[in-house]
Structure formats: C-alpha cells, structure tokens
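A student in our group prepared the protein record below, which I am reviewing. What it holds is a sequence and that sequence's fold in token form. My question to you is simply how this chain folds and whether the tokens agree. Do not assume that whoever made the record got everything right. I have pasted the whole thing underneath without changing anything:
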Amino acid sequence: MNEKNISREIKKLTTQLEEVKRTIFQERLSEGTFSDDNSVISDLQAKEVILQNKIRELTKKKYSSAVRSPEIFQLEDENGFKQNVTITGEDPEPSLGRISNKSPLGKALLTKTETESVRVKTPRGMIRYRIVARKSSFG
C-alpha cells in the first residue's frame, strides 16, 4: 500500500471513528445515562478501539521511514500556548523550531494525526501537546 492509499484509508477510518463516537453519544443521550452498562455502547466502544488502533498502525506505517520532506506541526501545550515545529531528517535547530525526527518529540509526533495528543519528557518534565494542525511542507 503506497503513501497515498494509506492516507485515503486513514481518512476513511477517521470518518468511521467520528461516526462511532457520535453514535455512542446519541445512544447515551437516548438512554439518559453516561454509564457504560449498555451492550450497544460496549459494542460501539470496542469498535472505536479497533478503529483507533487501525488508524494508529497505518499512521506509523506511513511515517515509519525517514522523513522524506519536512513535516510541520502546530502544537498547543497544556497552558494553551501554540507553537509551530518542523520535523526534519537533517539539520535540526530547536531554537528555530526545527527538531529531529529521531528526537522524543519528533518520534512521537510522526505517529499521530491532527487532534491527537502526545506526552513527551522534556528538560522541563513531562509535557502534553495537542496537535492542532499537521502538513507536509511540500504538499
């Protein structure tokens, strides 16, 4: 499966995942409870986990090789501070927002999609970032 097909499959699975989440919410509303004590909700939650795992595996497959072109991420930290970082395979310059694909943050980001979060150990301790946007600098 080439990168374009993987991207299409990820998009399809993400759409399915959103539908499952919406259905879980609607089911909970109709039941008047947010308890997981419902076989329909349990089945939907199992499907949700399966879809999330498929998306994660395809994303890892897509980005497991060396960075072919720089990837640009807009991140938001726990305090709401937003920053752009570029993940590159060569010439990292953290002070300019260019980080290596081999750094802990670079590795973590390359396996995630927009709206997902990552937790990484930094010199300041563990920090959680939410991915606001992600794009290839050449696409």
